[in-house]
Amino acid sequence: MWPLGHAAVAYLCYTLSRRGRALQPPAAAPVVAVLVGSQVPDLLDKPLSWYLGMLPTGRSLGHSFLFLVPLAIGALLLARHVGRREVGFAFVLGMLSHPIMDIVPVLWRETSVGMLLWPVTAVEPYEEGAPTIADLLAGSLGDPYFLLEFVLAAIALVLWHGHGQPGLDAIRTRVIARRTNRRDDSLD
């Protein structure tokens, strides 16, 4: 699954969890946390594998529950300590939804689920080196699972808009503040 699909699924899962707990629509900080969390496995594995050659594949350490569960526990404990339990919950939900969505294709094609317990279970290392993003995109274009990501993203965007676009103002404020700081620094 691509970043857009992971973000969409994580947001949808988080929205459903809020409804299940009879809470109001999501607030800004948890939305940002669920979106960041949804990218964590790839942000760990892809650079360490593709560029540094430290991991056998782009789906190993960051996709392994043997790594993610302790990380999730640590994130939840930290969030509780700083009084941001919902932010911690959102981050962990986004992070754990990622490898689950990456193994869904095992239902209809031959795919390994070894990444979920790496290094206890094996993963297939790259035969000819790390793939390029262009190669991955070209290989994904005809895949129904890839196309489903856009449907999920559309549903997530409609819900997010209906929830008042939580997180957008916080991001805009930070971007504008950084631009202002850069301009002020360049004037000095």
UniProtKB/TrEMBL annotation:
Protein keywords: Hydrolase, Membrane, Transmembrane, Transmembrane helix
UniProt entry tagged with the keyword Electron transport: no
Residue runs in coiled coils: none
Residues that span the membrane, as ranges: 61-80, 87-108, 145-162
Cross-referenced InterPro entries: YdjM-like (IPR007404)
GO MF terms held by the record: hydrolase activity
Name of protein: Putative membrane-bound metal-dependent hydrolase (DUF457)
Species assigned in the record: Halovivax ruber (strain DSM 18193 / JCM 13892 / XH-70)
